[in-house]
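Our preliminary data section would be incomplete without showing what the modeling component actually yields. Below, a chain of 451 amino acids is followed by its predicted structure, encoded as tokens that our downstream tools consume directly.
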Amino acid sequence: MAIIVPFRGITYNFHSMHDMSRLVAPPYDVISEGEQEEYYRADPHNIIRLILGKRKIGDTDWDNRYTRAADTYRRWESEGILGRADEPFIYLTSHTYDPGDGKPQRTRWGLIVLVRIEDEGSGVILPHEQTFSAHKDDRLKLISSCNAQFSQIFGLYEDPSDTIMDACKNAADMPATFSFDFKDGTKHQMWSINNQSLFKKVAELMADRSIFIADGHHRYETSRNFRDIMRKKHGRRPANKSYEYVMMYLSNMDNQGLTILPSHRLIKTVPDFDLKSFLEILKRWFTVTEVPFRGTSIFEDCIGLRKIIEDAGHNNTAMAFYVKDAGQFYMLTLKANARDEMGADIHPALKNLDVLVLSRLVFEKALGFDKEHMDNSDIFHYESNMEKAVSEVTSGNCQMVFLLNPTRIEHVKEIAMNSLVMPRKSTFFYPKVLTGLVFNKIDPNETVDVF
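Predicted structure:
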């Protein structure tokens, strides 16, 4: 069962820090080096200094990005830049955004709470994507240095009638703790709710539900590794020790406010690539058709192409391919029975994923890449925006791009429920949950209140 509890969150001092938009940032793993510098310049107290500090020449075990983050965090606490709530709260958030598909703005509602960390295979908290050791090592160093969680794991739960979120909205009968517009055009609000009856109701309603990890797989596994380290130092009793829990942002996957964007695949270069030979190989598994690429307006070209891919992908796998100077896009529509050639080692649920069709039939069989190549960030790049992805090829930054439909939420659920994992970057839940709204302090001497 999922154990959900309120907590004494640490937040910026809203009385003295008036412009929240200058203090927050996206999750660390989607921030480029250029964007890191922008957040550094935005405000001397921007969260970037905690979640993604700069490396310096001469860094040592005693002075590095993690120790500097810890020093900064403690200094901000002592200076009153950050303050901790006296009592436990549930934090209700709204996130209004343009879904980018020509449809009206949407609002995604979420709860920031603590969730008990589960052992692998428990069936309570379900991942769906592969993780990598280097990323987990990085986050473990940060959480070990700071004894705090700065970023929420993004979790989803099923609630067709939206009972849980409606109860939280009804309890938010006070002005929002803060409201601000972020630089990407999204609008944010957060309510800090201290309501014992709500705590109990949310705990009861969530108890028999599973939580699907949307974003933050590395951070969740890191929290479990940190919990195990703390158990060795401080024990497993009582069961409600602070390190037994992780901060999560929970949202209803059945709500219309949820958006999944595609994660288009860009390839930097393919040695000795020959377009004609490549297309001939693809015809074994795909019907290949040409779609005009005028090139005068990539935005207009992509509007039409996006609709073609979407229509072709309703009941089948469909994608588009573009290589520099080709003069047109190539639509690839999977032929009947072609999934049988993906390999006998693949679970039937995985064979329905467009990204795995692309990986097995195109990248491995047609282009000759192996798993190590596909995990190499010097070769493969990912972009959720179709126009930007195509521009990367027309500019010469990449040689080719494969344009996909977004992964369906029902496929995410199916994969997770079968204890399977997708290839990396199979989903792009949009918008990302901002970091800096609220933090969770992990004190081994503290316990949390379980309802």
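The chain is about 30% helix and 20% strand. The chain has a mean pLDDT of 93. Preliminary results of this kind motivate Aim 1 of the renewal.
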